Amino acid sequence: GAVVSQHPSWVICKSGTSVKIECRSLDFQATTMFWYRQFPKQSLMLMATSNEGSKATYEQGVEKDKFLINHASLTLSTLTVTSAHPEDSSFYICSARDVQNHQPQHFGDGTRLSIL
Amino acid sequence: QQQVKQSPQSLIVQKGGISIINCAYENTAFDYFPWYQQFPGKGPALLIAIRPDVSEKKEGRFTISFNKSAKQFSLHIMDSQPGDSATYFCAASTSSSYKLIFGSGTRLLVRP
User: Fold this and answer.
1) Which residues in chain A are closer than 8 Å to B35, comparing Cβ atoms?
2) B63-B64-B66 Cα angle (round to 5)
3) Residue in A closest to B105 by C-alpha
4) Closest to A103 (Cβ–Cβ): which among B32, B41, B101?
5) CB A109 to CB B98 under 8 A?
């Protein structure tokens, strides 16, 4: 079945550093990828929609200068958390939509980000 | 308008029993209703999904019941097993945006 790979799966870094998370669709092309954030014992909250070759669309309340998204190819989107602080610590999950199918979205296994 | 309400927050079921999780939505533009299963430290995995043109869909032990007039849908897990213990999320989206709006989640524990 369709696979979405996220890297890294876990990252710990110091406050003030920037962290890049990669999301790859391994066996299909994805014109659209989505980035979610999930705090412990909470639901997934959509942060932004990433479209290949164009600017990402951010949800209300999500700082676009804080969370930089690049969707350079049909199989890769990246999320960069800039100048990360402890409050940015969370579980970040991406999903990708197969261009051949309207649904479903295929999810990656997430990246746990811990900012010290 | 975008909210999807899910209940219960947690559920304990004996092995072999039926687990039932309910969701309600407000936006009548939603036309795709998936259920996801998530284990700790993992991303959500699609279980089953339904569109509003049918009232029920069954895949193995999982069944979605859909009530368009009430704007409600539910997940039934038959013959629940300890391996089903996970967090379950309902979601909804439209064909125009494909953005998934998730419910708050239900933590299911199936006792042996």
Assistant:
1) none
2) 150
3) A43
4) B32
5) no
> What does the pLDDT read at residue A101?
65
Query: pLDDT at position A69, please?
Result: 94
Beta-carbon separation of B98 and A42 below 8 A: no
A29-60 in b/e burial notation, b at 16+ Cβ within 10 A?
ebebbbbbbbeeeebbbbbbbbbbeeebbbee
Of the candidates B32, B43, B95, the beta carbon closest to that of A93 is on B43
Per-residue pLDDT 10s for chain A (116 aa) are: 668 999 999 999 999 999 999 999 998 888 889 999 999 999 999 999 998 888 899 999 999 999 999 988 889 999 999 999 999 999 999 999 876 765 678 899 999 999 99
Q: Give pLDDT, residue A31.
A: 83
Using a CB–CB cutoff of 8 Å, tell me whether B103 touches chain A: yes
Neighbours of A85 (CB within 10 A): 12
Contact A93 B102 (CB under 8 A): no
CB-CB under 8 Å, A34 with B105: no
Task: Name the A residues in 44-103 with CB < 8 Å from any B CB.
Answer: 44-46, 49, 93, 95, 97, 102-103
Residues of chain B with pLDDT under 50: none
